[in-house]
């Protein structure tokens, strides 16, 4: 495995033509957490899974927060640029295309920030239990960029208003957004995995 700027795992693809996935874990996860998810939702796709570089009480995250649900937006912007640079390194090191992000919780939030700040880095994103990482994102053109958002109807962590704010930001930027609320709380369910797999299968490959 290449020595890049983030600790990570990389699994080469075995199914020709499948778009790579960028797997972004939630708070307290690591680079192994979402590998089983990636294998399930996109069998045979190349998988790139970094570990967040921020520690909160010893738990890896992708950016700092001031309290639960209150983000350090300056750090969000900085860490999104760092992650974008890592993806560029990985594309060169592993010979892969721009990936589709599959992010959970904190990983979904940094994926949303990547879309807003470095849209050319991602071919699309599945945002599972996401909220708006930036209160005033820059104007960005996401025309035709496929994005899936899955929210839990009993999620105690993601306020519905914040998820709606993110959906509005993405739609105003022109993303092709599929937004769905599923039964459940903050954790991932079989419904999330099935819907993500179906969305990936239904989404045409986006030229980069």
What's the short version?
The chain has 208 residues and is α/β, with parallel strands linked by helices. Helix content is 32%, strand content 23%. It is built from 5 helices and 11 strands; from the N terminus they run E-E-H-E-E-E-E-E-H-E-H-E-E-H-E-H.
Protein described:
The protein has 208 residues and is α/β, with parallel strands linked by helices. It has a single domain (8-202), classed as Rossmann fold (3-Layer(aba) Sandwich). 32% of the residues lie in helices and 23% in strands. It contains five helices and eleven strands. The protein has helices spanning 35-41, 73-94, 106-117, 160-172, 190-202, and strands spanning 8-11, 21-24, 47-50, 54-56, 59-61, 65-67, 70-71, 100-104, 124-128, 146-152, 176-182. The strands form three sheets. A seven-stranded mixed β-sheet has the order 1-3-2-8-9-10-11, with helices on both faces. It has a two-stranded antiparallel ribbon with strand order 4-5. Strands 6-7 form a two-stranded antiparallel sheet. Helix 2 (73-94) crosses helix 3 (106-117). The longest helix has 22 residues, at 73-94. The radius of gyration is 15 Å and the shape is globular.
How do the helices and strands line up, and which of them pair or pack?
Layout: E1 8-11, E2 21-24, H1 35-41, E3 47-50, E4 54-56, E5 59-61, E6 65-67, E7 70-71, H2 73-94, E8 100-104, H3 106-117, E9 124-128, E10 146-152, H4 160-172, E11 176-182, H5 190-202
Helix pairs in contact: 2-3
